[in-house]
Design a protein that fits this description.
With about 170 residues, the chain is an alpha/beta fold. It has two domains: about 35 residues; about 130 residues, Glutaredoxin, CATH 3.40.30. Helices cover about 45% and strands about 25% of the residues. The longest helix is centred in the N-terminal third of the chain and has 34 residues.
């Protein structure tokens, strides 16, 4: 009787671990789907009104994407000063693009022109990219690297803590 109980317990425990493993695999696959559709987003360059493809970017550099709005004073400083400085640093090997979240793209265009912004400024036309990363507040940044034939998210965070961004770019 004890032998049957031990065998029964073993199979129940084995089944439990198998269930946990399968659930985690499915979870990881769903996270990959959510975090790696970078090439599929419809983005528009606000300076030219042309479609912008992430596929056109260099794949040997990390990609820093900064989400901003024209009403955000921290974002303005980041866009005018910090992002160009980061991109110019050879030791970080990074390319920078920004995505404006203003409802009215004309406000962003006015800001870009007035401040001679040199970092590419994009618009997420359907708002899908913003939803994928759950961007609620700005500034917000995301760092990607190209590996295994796709852009993979390394990290993202609300706010713009320059030392934290630099640390993540060095990884």
């Amino acid at each position: 009787m004890l032998k049957i109980h031990v065998i029964k317990s073993f199979f129940m425990l084995w089944g439990f671990f198998l269930l946990i493993f399968v659930s985690n695999v499915n979870y990881l696959e769903s996270v990959e789907k959510v975090l790696n559709p970078l090439d599929s987003f419809k983005l528009v360059d606000l300076t030219s009104d042309n479609d912008f493809s992430i596929a056109s970017l260099k794949r040997d550099k990390k990609l820093l994407i900064s989400f901003w709005a024209s009403w955000c004073s921290n974002c303005k400083h980041e866009l005018k000063v910090l992002l160009p400085q980061l991109e110019a640093r050879k030791d970080l090997n990074v390319q920078v693009v920004s995505i404006n979240i203003d409802q009215d793209p004309e406000r962003a265009k006015h800001f870009i022109k007035k401040n001679q912004i040199i970092v590419p400024v994009l618009k997420d036309q359907q708002g899908n990219f913003i939803k994928e990363l759950n961007v609620v507040n700005v500034p917000h940044w995301a760092i990607y690297c190209f590996k295994d034939q796709k852009w993979s998210l390394l990290s993202h965070q609300e706010g713009f803590d320059l030392p934290k961004v630099e640390e993540q770019l060095r990884l």
